[in-house]
Write a structure and sequence with these properties.
This protein has 389 residues and is of the alpha/beta class. The protein is built from eleven helices and 20 strands.
């Protein structure tokens, strides 16, 4: 096995639990290492510190996997990791048959995400190392997931490009139907497993259930509604009405299917900023407002611009919330901290001239665990706020 040697003290990040070794931390590398292969990593004293996936074409040149020199990164290793992840989810009492099974670094499998949907799994690989070990992963899923019917790969996005990998969408094992039905709390959803723009995000499950439980007898506004998850929960819990706004016609079509058994549901397609301004001019009000914009700050360079956008979205949302009503704001941008979002909320409250009280701090669902050592695994944050005029 080939070896990688680090500069002095550059192993500290890994020893604290963070698995990323950047190219600038490397002192020397043995020749002819196959990209994506497993390497042994040593500190500047030539002491073994672990095994990892190597890729010379990535800024993260090694993604560490294992501390123990006596352990092999093989089929048994993957089998154990996926077994542990599955057992964790089974112990969380998740009120759904759809959840995240593998959350990358949080499950000690950097570069791998796996979502479970009622006996089917969707696999997303973003690193060359995990790509090379794909057969191990497939077999581990077959071994450990009861009643598994199919494995589908949906490996897309910028992460693969950075690793020198092409995008892939394909059936890896079993059969994958066009659509399946899943439940979440007392709500049901139709899921297009192969869909490009009509997926389902379990990271908001607990927030959807919470907001649904608070919506009985209320009028609900769902901004950036996507496929209607929040509205389905609101209507399933006895909301009087729901209004969904999204820019994607594909997503709204799925939302219409998910909400077809409910009445008093309106769908509006278009730019949210334009639509919210029109609704404000019409002096419309809702009892519960959900603001779930897409990622506005992919990195720290975009933070200042993103916070201005969040402040504007929140301000418009406040103006559409009835006196004593509830406003939920979320951010899925890793570069935006909870403190950043709270600051944007505070500025919006000040400009709106209202009083506001945070009644819940919102987070990603428990099936998206947060690694104590890898802050990047915490990305979803939000606030549920009571608005008083």
């Amino acid at each position: 096995m080939k070896k990688v040697f680090l500069k002095k003290d550059r192993e500290k990040l890994w020893l604290s639990g963070h698995p990323w070794i950047y190219s600038g931390a490397v002192d020397k590398i043995e020749q002819n290492i196959i990209p994506g292969s497993i390497v042994e990593v040593f500190n500047h004293k030539n002491e073994f510190i672990g095994y990892g996936h190597y890729n010379k074409n990535s800024k993260i040149i090694v993604r560490m996997l294992e501390h123990d020199k006596n352990v092999s990164i093989d089929a048994n290793w993957y089998n154990q990791k996926i077994k542990q992840a599955y057992e964790l989810r089974m112990g969380l009492n998740i009120d759904s048959n759809a959840f995240r099974l593998i959350h990358s670094e949080s499950d000690f499998l950097p570069g791998l995400i796996i979502d479970y949907f009622n006996d089917y799994v969707i696999l997303q690989i973003s690193t060359l190392g995990m790509e090379r070990d794909k057969e191990f992963i497939i077999q581990a899923l077959i071994n450990n997931i009861p009643n598994l019917k199919g494995i589908y790969e949906k490996s897309e996005g910028d992460g693969r490009k950075l690793e020198g990998l092409p995008e892939k969408t394909q059936i890896l094992w079993g059969e994958i139907p066009d659509t399946i039905e899943i439940f979440e709390g007392n709500a049901n959803f139709i899921i297009d497993l192969k869909g490009q723009k009509t997926g389902f995000y379990s990271d908001q499950r607990e927030n959807r259930i919470l907001l649904g439980n608070l919506s009985k007898g209320k009028n609900f506004l769902d901004v950036c509604s996507y496929t209607g998850g929040f509205s389905v929960h609101a209507m399933s819990n006895g909301a009087n009405s729901a209004t969904l706004i999204d820019i994607s016609e594909d997503a709204l079509n799925v939302a219409k299917e998910n909400l077809k058994k409910h009445i008093n549901v309106d769908f509006i397609k278009g730019n949210i900023f334009d639509i919210l301004r029109v609704l404000i001019k019409e002096e419309r009000k809702w009892d519960v407002v959900s603001l779930d914009p897409p990622k506005l700050a992919p990195n720290k360079r975009d933070l200042e611009k993103a916070l201005k956008a969040y402040k504007d979205i929140i301000l418009n949302g406040i103006k559409l919330t009835s006196n004593g009503g509830l406003l939920a704001i979320y951010s899925c941008s890793g570069a935006v901290s909870s403190s950043d979002l709270r600051m944007a909320l505070a500025y919006a409250v000040k400009d709106a001239g209202v009083k506001a009280t945070i009644v819940h701090q919102l987070h990603q669902s428990s099936c998206h665990p947060i690694s104590v050592s890898v802050p990047e695994t915490e990305y979803l944050k939000g606030f549920l706020v009571r608005i008083i005029y």
